[in-house]
Amino acid sequence: MAGPEQSVGLVFISHSTKIADGLVDLARQMAPQTRMVPAGGTDGGGIGTSFTKVLSGIEQADAGAGVVLLCDLGSAILTAETALDFLDDAVRARVRIADAPLIEGGVAAAVAAEVGGDLDSVVRAAQSAIGAESEVAADPELPQQVTRTVTLVNTAGLHARPAADFVKLASTFEARVTVNGKDASSLLAVMSLGLTRGMSAEISSSDANGAAAVAALGDLLESGFGEE
């Protein structure tokens, strides 16, 4: 796993300073080590976007592993594209604009960067907010499935920080794992289940080495994530 100095960085480009700042605050609850820079509002603090803020954001977020830009509205994308034109070729090659919703995509991208995902992985995580990669298809060639059903005991269930912790752990295993049929390594897929306290989570894997992943994820759920 890449450390914070080598991980992919993120820039959140919004017409509103409060939205960009707030998204950093939200995503940092789930990805505390990831480089995230808000680029919201105009240079004077008004509603709009700032070319200089975007350029500065890319510079601050870039640790060498790449930077993903997420935008709220069409003109924010235009500002981002203009900023890319002014980058050196070497820097431009590792900067991507993700075609994804700002908030949902930003949170998913942050968690993917936190667990050491490369540039392509972080972009895919952001784009999962528009419905990609939320399901794991069945494969008849895989070994017999290992399944464990756990009743959630923590108040928040699989939402926000607990969901991020669950996804981070799932991402440390090579085995493919599902929770109630959804990809256990996809934050948005897990959160879309709406699992709250008292509900059941079925953790499954058909991979040959999936038993350890299922056991670890089941233990995490049963622990209540340290919540009182």
Question: How would you characterize the overall build of this protein?
Answer:
- It is a single chain.
- By secondary structure, the protein is an alpha/beta fold.
- It has 2 domains: 9-130, 3-Layer(aba) Sandwich (Rossmann fold), CATH 3.40.50; 146-226, 2-Layer Sandwich (Histidine-containing Protein, Chain: A).
- Helix content is 40%, strand content 15%.
- The protein is built from 9 helices and 8 strands.
- The protein has helices at 17-28, 51-61, 74-85, 89-92, 102-114, 119-127, 160-170, 187-191, 210-223, and strands spanning 9-14, 36-40, 67-71, 95-97, 146-151, 178-179, 182-183, 200-205.
- Strands 2-1-3-4 form a 4-stranded parallel sheet, sandwiched between helices. Strands 5-8-6-7 form a 4-stranded antiparallel sheet, covered by helices on one side.
- α1 (17-28) runs parallel beside α5 (102-114).
- The longest helix is centred in the last third of the chain and has 14 residues, at 210-223.
- The radius of gyration is 18 Å and the shape is elongated.
- The model is unreliable at 132-138 (pLDDT under 50).
